Amino acid sequence: MREELLEIKNLSTSFRIADHYYAAVDDVTLTVRKNEILAIVGESGSGKSALAFSIMGLHTRANIDGHIYYKGKDIVGMPSAALNKLRGNEMSMIFQDPLSALNPLMIVGAQIEEALILHDSKLSKKQRKEKVLDLLSKVGIPRPDHTYQQYPHELSGGMRQRVVIAIAIANEPKLLIADEPTTALDVTIQLQILELIKHLKDDIEAGIILITHDLGVVSEMADRVAVMYAGQIVEIADIYTLTSRAKHPYTRSLLNSIPTVKEEKSRLHVIQGMVPSLQNLPRAGCRFAARIPWIAPSEHEDDPKLHEVAPGHFVRCSCYKNFHFPERTEEVHTHGTS
Ligand SMILES: Nc1ncnc2c1ncn2[C@@H]1O[C@H](COP(=O)(O)OP(=O)(O)OP(=O)(O)O)[C@@H](O)[C@H]1O
């Protein structure tokens, strides 16, 4: 049995817009275990980054409710000094854009050393440099000595992201959050970076949260998957179950959007529309109902909950039970939702 590292319970993160608070993460409950990759997938605006930032304690102006237990200790509301210590020592994050995560005025080597100094001041100068060179080679940089002396702008996007990963793993974190780590990179480099993250899971035995909107990436990488829609988890399961027996209409639509040789057929079965803006999110009933208007309102729950349909497989709202993709006529004759 794998050890539970992170346990999130009923977490809501709300942002103030004008005079109101709106929850971008709404009642999220999930766990991350040691030595596993939990992927969080969902379209843009579904709340993935807001959830990641909440775990890292990086929201300065948001209202956070609920609990985030890290190794059994609730870190919501933890004093910032203690949280700072935890970040870097125990938890770290790889951001989408490697350029903005690095200091343009500092050589790469010094930036990785800084991460080491902040969290372990006992290393001698020589030991620190050796450790930096070791980290650079661990993340697949071919000439660590040379790269040590370079500035971020002298590196390619893929090399920069490797440096960012070296900083993130410098202190051997137990929890690593990678937020769309390959978005800014071209396809071949994406694969290399993803392979590297997979390798790190075994190497440092971390629990990894991989945030992406790409279920293709997920099927290559993840042990378990949480699917987010409009701030909520709508389905969570191990990767095999999710890719072979997905139930929620949103998950099924996402899976159909993975390009296949039968592209003509799958295009027909992808649900149209997008996640509404934060102020316009439906707050009552099934949040996905508006995108599947051919499903009768009576098929949805008034207050949809996550149901455990098989051990470890949870699905929100009973609308999954009789769900089907629309026939052409149903797209026109809907049940009145818009
Ligand atoms: N600081 C903020 N203030 C107000 N609204 C915010 C803030 N951060 C995020 N939001 C809103 O919260 C919702 C969720 O955003 P979030 O960035 O978490 O989505 P995401 O799933 O990570 O999207 P993407 O894949 O595009 O990064 C969006 O409607 C977004 O506009």
TrEMBL record:
Tell me which GO cellular component terms the UniProt record holds.
Answer: plasma membrane
A Gene Ontology molecular function term of the record: ATP binding
**Entry's Pfam families?**
ABC_tran, oligo_HPY
Q: Where in the cell is it found?
A: Cell membrane
Membrane topology, record value:
Peripheral membrane protein
Main location group: membrane
Please report which protein family the annotation says this sequence is part of. Answer: Belongs to the ABC transporter superfamily.
Supply the name of the protein. Peptide ABC transporter ATPase
The ABC transporter domain covers which part of the protein? Answer: 6-255
Q: Which UniProt keywords apply?
A: ATP-binding, Cell membrane, Membrane, Nucleotide-binding, Transport
Q: Would the keyword Cell inner membrane turn up in this protein's UniProt record? A: no
A single BP term in Gene Ontology: peptide transport
Look up the domain of life of the source.
Bacteria
Q: Which NCBIfam families match?
A: oligo_HPY (TIGR01727)
